[in-house]
Specification:
The protein has 176 residues and is of the alpha+beta class. It has a single domain, classed as Sandwich (Jelly Rolls), CATH 2.60.120.10. The protein has helices at 13-25, 30-44, 53-56, 160-163; strands spanning 2-5, 64-70, 75-81, 90-92, 96-102, 105-112, 117-125, 130-133, 139-144, 150-156, 167-170. The longest helix is centred in the N-terminal third of the chain and has 15 residues, at 30-44. The chain is globular. It comes from Nonomuraea antimicrobica.
């Protein structure tokens, strides 16, 4: 994953960061935190101008993550997906909340059966939609199925600037 960190004006980021800080300070469990942050993000999902035009261009090679804010307990990351770009099957180090700003993020969910994965669901996340999850049970892959560049905002319950990624494990097990 290509991760960049920048310090530029980010319309809507301050409101989101202060709200997430208040939620995290409550000391809720991972799932409860993800859902509370999702409620906040539904009310305050920033627009495309949260990223610069250069950041929104993405990369022809793969999706790109831009760290917009990081501290010990959470990070805010803008993800840019050109049409057709996707992730490997993976899970996460922490809870996550994401909001779709543009494009369609097609998500396929899996369950680990030890020697193989079983597909347990699919969903198309569209602009304005927000969702959250927490390990365990967060094994998935994501693909931009729209014909436009996709932009999504992710809040992770970890300092991804220190970790380098929100991914805990990549799965190369067969799907049955």
């Amino acid at each position: 994953m290509n991760i960049t960190a920048t310090t530029v004006a980010r319309p809507g980021l301050d409101v989101l960061v202060s709200g997430v800080s208040r939620i995290v300070a409550r000391g809720l469990g991972g799932r409860e935190t993800a859902f509370a942050v999702a409620g906040l993000m539904r009310e305050h999902l920033p627009g495309l101008d949260i990223l610069t035009p250069e950041e929104r261009a993405g990369s022809p090679e793969r999706y790109v993550s831009h760290i917009l804010h990081a501290e010990r307990d959470f990070s805010v990351v803008g993800v840019v997906w050109r049409p057709g770009q996707d992730t490997v099957v993976h899970d996460h180090v922490s809870w996550c909340t994401f909001g779709i700003i543009s494009g369609i993020e097609h998500e396929t969910l899996y369950q680990d059966m030890g020697d193989h994965l079983v597909e347990i669901g699919r969903t198309d996340n569209r602009p304005g939609e927000v969702s959250g999850f927490a390990p365990p049970g967060d094994i998935h892959t994501v693909r931009n199925t729209s014909s436009e560049i996709g932009v999504s905002l992710h809040v992770y319950g970890a300092d991804v600037s220190r970790l380098g990624s929100s991914v805990r494990r990549v799965y190369d097990l067969p799907v049955r």
